Amino acid sequence: MLNFARHRRLRHTANLRAMVRETRLHKEDLIYPIFVVEGENQKNPVQSMPGVFQVSLDLLNEEIEEVVKLGIKSVILFGIPHEKDEVGSGAYHDHGIVQRAIAQIKQQHSDLVVIADTCLCEYTDHGHCGVVENGQIVNDASLKLLAKTAVSQAKAGADIIAPSNMMDGFVAAIREALDEEGFVHIPIMSYAVKYASAFYGPFREAAESTPKFGDRKTYQMDPANRLEALREAEADVEQGCDFLIVKPALSYLDIVRDVKNHFNLPVVAYNVSGEYSMIKAAAENGWIDEKGTVLEMLTSMKRAGADLIITYHAKDVARWLDEQSDY
């Protein structure tokens, strides 16, 4: 008789497969991004991101109620102000759009984890993530404004500060500012590894943050680089961050694994807008099964080492997880 391994024995039934499943998705893994906009009665569809909207504060409660009822435990906020200027002053105004959204959410659902994206690009008239002088993004002057932004978000009630600007020393500057203002308990979820990716296009429509000149390659990472990701993450760990984000996720699963292997902090994969939009477009054309593809994609991020996933699919995934136990 032939002697060989029979791996299919553990795949014979659904319950057997469930018993030996190595990687599982949970609702607690999901972080849902929300775009908040000035004005009233605004629920503006993002054309390149079907199912995603810019939502005004008067409609925000309805959005949050849905998130909470679905069992999602965390949201991350991005703001679109009425007015922009060269230094992004709306980002650190105590009554800015994100600050008001944070306070409103925490009043409605104090136990929902509210993460504040900390950057200037949505608030600057040039669309860059820092101060611009003579056509150059100036690092250290930008740090002061980013630190002010983080403090204002913490004052509004943010549970986590998530700086996404990729300026050198941004974690150190924000940590020092938070501590000096008495926010020693507020963790920093650093966009430690953020590539200058072509997958961000739809987000820039949603956040109205497309640069008016040049690109972001002088501060975001070259997609060809791997070891640089570890240097970036190591610097942020040394400066006091509490989470490490890898962005984008799908084309960078090797980086997610590298970061997980090297650092003993929670790793967050950002399933970015371009990844979302490709799935949506293919599903709308009937080329793929949306549910199966999304669940497989997010499971691959967990398998690569992500502890948490920022994803625009979060609400759909929460519904699907209620329907089945396969994931």
From TrEMBL:
<dbReference type="GO" id="GO:0004655">
    <property type="term" value="F:porphobilinogen synthase activity"/>
</dbReference>
<feature type="binding site">
    <location>
        <position position="119"/>
    </location>
    <ligand>
        <name>Zn(2+)</name>
    </ligand>
</feature>
<feature type="binding site">
    <location>
        <position position="273"/>
    </location>
    <ligand>
        <name>5-aminolevulinate 2</name>
    </ligand>
</feature>
<dbReference type="InterPro" id="IPR013785">
    <property type="entry name" value="Aldolase_TIM"/>
</dbReference>
<dbReference type="InterPro" id="IPR030656">
    <property type="entry name" value="ALAD_AS"/>
</dbReference>
<comment type="function">
    <text>Catalyzes an early step in the biosynthesis of tetrapyrroles. Binds two molecules of 5-aminolevulinate per subunit, each at a distinct site, and catalyzes their condensation to form porphobilinogen.</text>
</comment>
<keyword id="KW-0862">Zinc</keyword>
<feature type="binding site">
    <location>
        <position position="312"/>
    </location>
    <ligand>
        <name>5-aminolevulinate 2</name>
    </ligand>
</feature>
<feature type="binding site">
    <location>
        <position position="129"/>
    </location>
    <ligand>
        <name>Zn(2+)</name>
    </ligand>
</feature>
<feature type="active site" description="Schiff-base intermediate with substrate">
    <location>
        <position position="247"/>
    </location>
</feature>
<dbReference type="InterPro" id="IPR001731">
    <property type="entry name" value="ALAD"/>
</dbReference>
<keyword id="KW-0460">Magnesium</keyword>
<keyword id="KW-0350">Heme biosynthesis</keyword>
<keyword id="KW-0479">Metal-binding</keyword>
<comment type="similarity">
    <text>Belongs to the ALAD family.</text>
</comment>
<feature type="binding site">
    <location>
        <position position="204"/>
    </location>
    <ligand>
        <name>5-aminolevulinate 1</name>
    </ligand>
</feature>
<feature type="binding site">
    <location>
        <position position="232"/>
    </location>
    <ligand>
        <name>Mg(2+)</name>
    </ligand>
</feature>
<feature type="active site" description="Schiff-base intermediate with substrate">
    <location>
        <position position="194"/>
    </location>
</feature>
<dbReference type="GO" id="GO:0006782">
    <property type="term" value="P:protoporphyrinogen IX biosynthetic process"/>
</dbReference>
<dbReference type="GO" id="GO:0005829">
    <property type="term" value="C:cytosol"/>
</dbReference>
<protein>
    <recommendedName>
        <fullName>Delta-aminolevulinic acid dehydratase</fullName>
        <ecNumber>4.2.1.24</ecNumber>
    </recommendedName>
</protein>
<dbReference type="GO" id="GO:0008270">
    <property type="term" value="F:zinc ion binding"/>
</dbReference>
<feature type="binding site">
    <location>
        <position position="121"/>
    </location>
    <ligand>
        <name>Zn(2+)</name>
    </ligand>
</feature>
<keyword id="KW-0456">Lyase</keyword>
<dbReference type="Pfam" id="PF00490">
    <property type="entry name" value="ALAD"/>
</dbReference>
<keyword id="KW-0627">Porphyrin biosynthesis</keyword>
<comment type="pathway">
    <text>Porphyrin-containing compound metabolism; protoporphyrin-IX biosynthesis; coproporphyrinogen-III from 5-aminolevulinate: step 1/4.</text>
</comment>
<feature type="binding site">
    <location>
        <position position="216"/>
    </location>
    <ligand>
        <name>5-aminolevulinate 1</name>
    </ligand>
</feature>
<comment type="subunit">
    <text>Homooctamer.</text>
</comment>
